[in-house]
Amino acid sequence: MTKIDDYTFNGCCGLTNITIPDSVTEIGSWSFGGCFGLTSINIPKGVTNISDYAFFGCYGLTSITVADGNPVYHGAGNCLIKASEKTLIVGCKASVIPNDGSVVKIGDSAFGNCKGLTSIVIPEGVVEIDDYAFTGCRDLTSVTIPESMKKIDANAFEDCFALSDIYYAGSESEWWYERYFDYYTPENVTLHCKG
């Protein structure tokens, strides 16, 4: 077995654990989508291709690890990172985004439908939040944004209905004028700026 096909376990809400064989090199799109009973994933060292949305909506996850020696992916702080692109591709409610420079971008739907995520601190060095990165995070109440941020795509925080506070390390003028944000501050959200 070298591939977990698209949609293989999609919607298997009773799935609580999975051991991905060392022979697997590819994990297909939506292969574990909506498996909200899944609490941990370990990516073997032979996996070199993880398709979009492979773990979308797995909001029960509290542990994300990658085996030593994987040439493409890296695990840190319960985050799955595509190393060459420095992109966080899967996060969970227990994620702590590394501040060591290994992440510069939060990828498309990385935290999509992450129930139980109440706050997130995005460290200095991250420059982009991709489309739908936090879509459907309905328990998310606060986000901390670094001054290094250059772009937040328009739908990055779509359907984050509880979001009430954004803490930005730069000035208000930087937020509104000097950075390219494809993003508006939603109604009922308070923007807190450093200067």
* Shape summary: globular
Major beta sheet, strand line-up:
6-7-8-9-11-13
Q: Which percent band covers the strand fraction?
A: 15-25%
Helical coverage, percent range: under 10%
Q: Low-confidence parts, pLDDT < 50 over ≥5 residues?
A: none
**Number of helical segments with 4 or more residues:** 1
Order of helices and strands: EEEEEEEEEEEEEEHE
Q: How would you state the average pLDDT, rounded? A: 93
> Major β-sheet, in short?
6 strands, mixed
Structural class per helix/strand content?
mainly beta
Through-space gap between termini = 55 Å
Report the strand count.
15
Task: Determine Rg (CA atoms, Å).
Answer: 17 Å
Model description:
The chain has 195 residues and is mainly beta. It has one helix and 15 strands; from the N terminus they run ββββββββββββββαβ. The chain has a six-stranded mixed β-sheet, with no helix packed on it. Strands 10-12-14-15 form a four-stranded parallel β-sheet, with no helix packed on it. A three-stranded parallel β-sheet has the order 1-2-4, with no helix packed on it. Strand 6 and strand 7 (79-82) form a beta hairpin. The longest helix is centred in the C-terminal third of the chain and has 7 residues, at 172-178. It is globular and about 55 Å long. It starts with a strand and ends with a strand. The model has no long low-confidence stretch (mean pLDDT 93).
